[in-house]
Structure formats: structure tokens, C-alpha cells
Design brief:
With about 80 residues, this protein is mostly helical. The chain contains three helices and no strands. The protein has one domain. Helix 1 packs antiparallel against helix 2. The chain starts with a helix and ends with a helix. The mean pLDDT is about 90.
């Protein structure tokens, strides 16, 4: 077990529950912020896992996760926009 994997476990054990708690409470904007925090934590955890495993081919998954989280945020923000 190397430092990258230890940091990955710490990140998932501390930051992800906080992101889930924020995403499950409050109004829609607060939940969107929790969703964004969860997306960032997931992407960073996947990057740390790739470094810890020593496989450069694992970098495809966090790249796709970052792109999809950005698109998902745009869709969610569009649904939250006030109707005229």
C-alpha cells in the first residue's frame, strides 16, 4: 500500500461523506454544490488510484468522469433555471 492509495482512501472516507451530506440537504442550489463537490472528489480519487496503481491507462476514467460531471452540471442547472 503506497501513499497514493492511503490518500485515496482518506479522500473517499472524509470528503465523500461530506459531499453526500451536502447533496442531500437544503435547497436545490445547495444540492447542486454537493453534487459538484462529489464530482471533484470522485475525479481526484480516480486520479490518485491511477497513480497508486501505476497504470497510465487508468487515466481515461477520470477524464471521462470530469467531462460527464461538467455536462451533468449544465443539465441540472438548466433544469433549475426559472421558467418565464
Amino acid at each position: 500500500m503506497n501513499p497514493w492509495l492511503v490518500g485515496d482512501l482518506a479522500l473517499l472516507g472524509v470528503a465523500m461523506p461530506v459531499a453526500l451530506w451536502i447533496a442531500s440537504r437544503g435547497n436545490a442550489i445547495d444540492r447542486l454544490v454537493g453534487l459538484e463537490i462529489g464530482s471533484v472528489v470522485t475525479t481526484i480519487a480516480l486520479l490518485a488510484f491511477s497513480q497508486g496503481a501505476g497504470q497510465a491507462s487508468y487515466l481515461i476514467v477520470p477524464t471521462v468522469a470530469a467531462i460527464l460531471s461538467f455536462v451533468g452540471t449544465l443539465v441540472f442547472a438548466r433544469l433549475l433555471a426559472p421558467r418565464r
